[in-house]
Amino acid sequence: MLDAARIRADFPLLERPENGRRLVYLDNAATTQKPEPVLAAIQEYYRTTNANVHRGAYGLAIRATQAYEAGRGRIARFVNAWAPEGVVFTRGTTEAINLVAGSYGRANVRPGDTVVVTAMDHHSNLVPWQILCQEKGATLRMVEITEDGRIDLSDFGAALERRPKIVAFPYVSNALGTVNPAAQLAKLAHAVGAVVVVDGAQSTPHLKVDVQALDCDFYALSGHKMLGPMGSGALVGKPELLEAMPPYHGGGEMISRVWDDHSTYNKIPHKFEAGTPNVEGAVGLAAAVDYLERIGPDRIAEHEQALARAAIEKLTGIEGVTVYGPRGHRAGVVSFTYGDIHPHDIATILDQDGVCIRAGHHCTQPLMRRLNVAATARASFYIYNDLEDVEALAGSLVKAGALFGYVPA
Amino acid sequence: MDTSPPEPRLSALYQELILDHYRRPRNKGTLDDATHTVSLNNPLCGDEIDLQLRVDGDVIKDVRFIGRGCSISQASASMMTQLLKDKSIPQAVALAERMSAMMQGEDAAARDKALGELRALAGVSKFPVRIKCALLPWNALTDAVKT
């Protein structure tokens, strides 16, 4: 396992007590805390390099542009993108998927076509496709999940028989921690001619990602879930697909020549980056990627899996607790319920001990319906969590059980 | 330096009476002869309530609810239905205002006997994110009598 105590020392926020206790931050699937090198990179950018990019003819603007484009290159290397120009900066995964739906989808999906999603998709990889299908008169086909929270491969196969135009799925489920066989799913989808969109919000921070090995067509990621600033993220796509796509937002930067009544557009990735971009986001995200690479994605995955295993063992040892999702290989996300105690009550009680977890539907309402719950409590781990945090979670949960009469006070 | 506020008392939040209403909700169900029906949910946390009233003149003769949610929202709904029977619409609206004042931490409201068992929810005012849970059924009531 990683030396979490040493890593924690890099995160100023984690040093601050919560409700008088050591902060036990277990909501990393929602967002992660930021280490000193990321905070410093953002400060440094504004203190020394800030100017508008791709415009100025002066040295400062050139250095700002270089910092922004260096960030792009850094992220391209991290996920082994097809090319740096295949990395489009977005506000995060949500905007990246909306870009694909709004541009590729609108240009290519026709009445009667099918778009395939899964029952474990986050609303951000579902609602944009709903909107597209409604607009185009296309069919949205949702692939079912198995009892233990994996994509049902036979239903996936059945959905592919409709020869969908687009197949979208999450690499890692934000609500269940399931690690989907993304490369296998992409291969199956390609065999019927579909374009493959992978929601990488929960995979990029936690395991080694190689988009070329996955052989998907589009891959969306969020910076803030991987130590970077909020409002940073990217769509990573195959350059030839991006080149053929119409623009998404109109404005400055994305154009080549503008006439009274029409325009020609810039080359990729700039065609999709209208307006002044989030340069601090790119710079901060690049620093976050440096930090994660120093630790190593494989070691991060191993660390989180160990914490998830320990948490599942501890929690299932408490009578009345149900843990959702697969038992074998999975990411560091542990969703659970405890008897008839509502997840919001659990979260309030845990908060008093400085334990931060998520309670609710995790933006996966179709999944919650299939699990037959209104909501779950969710603990999600990252590099700065350790077994002591797992103990704190379990200890505080027993306290919740006592308040609700499950265990003697 | 620890600048976090002192720990609000969990035991004040999760009193026996609240858990009793959560587990044995009063007036749960539907009315065949409802005159007012409102469904409200909190999209952020998923709490839901369907509230039905049978109003005769301006008097609430009967009330039922179906709800899904946390102990605070469900106990608040259960306690509210007990209190509403045979109250006039203006009295019901006044109670909703009293409840809202109690949630904003007003001591006088928390001591007001008119709120009956709902005073057990006074501790919720110390937990800002949970106030919306306690007020969900009351917002449904206000919506119902407005229409």
Characterize the structure shown.
The complex is a heterodimer of chains A (409) and B (147). With 409 residues, chain A is of the alpha/beta class. Chain A folds into two domains: 38-293, Type I PLP-dependent aspartate aminotransferase-like (Major domain) (Aspartate Aminotransferase, domain 2, 3-Layer(aba) Sandwich), CATH 3.40.640; 296-403, Aspartate Aminotransferase, domain 1 (Alpha-Beta Complex). Chain A has helices at residues 4-8, 36-48, 59-78, 93-108, 127-136, 153-160, 182-191, 211-214, 239-244, 279-295, 297-316, 343-351, 365-371, 387-403; strands spanning 24-25, 87-90, 114-118, 139-143, 166-170, 195-199, 218-222, 233-237, 255-258, 263-265, 321-323, 333-338, 355-356, 358-360, 376-380. In chain A, helix 7 (182-191) links the parallel strand 5 (166-170) and strand 6. In chain A, helix 4 runs parallel beside helix 5 (127-136), helix 11 packs parallel to helix 14 and helix 12 crosses helix 14 (387-403). The radius of gyration of chain A is 22 Å and the shape is globular. The model of chain A has no long low-confidence stretch (mean pLDDT 96). With 147 residues, chain B is α+β, with helices and mostly antiparallel strands. Chain B has one domain: Sufe protein. Chain: A. Helix content of chain B is 41%, strand content 17%. In chain B, helix 3 runs parallel beside helix 6 (131-146). Chain B is globular. The termini of chain B are far apart. The model of chain B is unreliable at 1-6 (pLDDT under 50). Chain A binds chain B through residues 17-20, 340-345, 348-349, 352, 359-361, 365, 368, 374-375, 403-405, and chain B through 2, 4-8, 10-11, 13-14, 19, 22-23, 44-48, 68-72, 127, 129-130, 133.
Short description:
The complex is a heterodimer of chains A (409) and B (147). Helices cover 40% and strands 15% of the residues of chain A.
Keywords:
A: 409 residues, alpha/beta, Aspartate Aminotransferase, domain 2, 2 domains, 40% helix, B: 147 residues, alpha+beta, Sufe protein. Chain: A, 3-stranded antiparallel beta sheet, 17% strand, globular
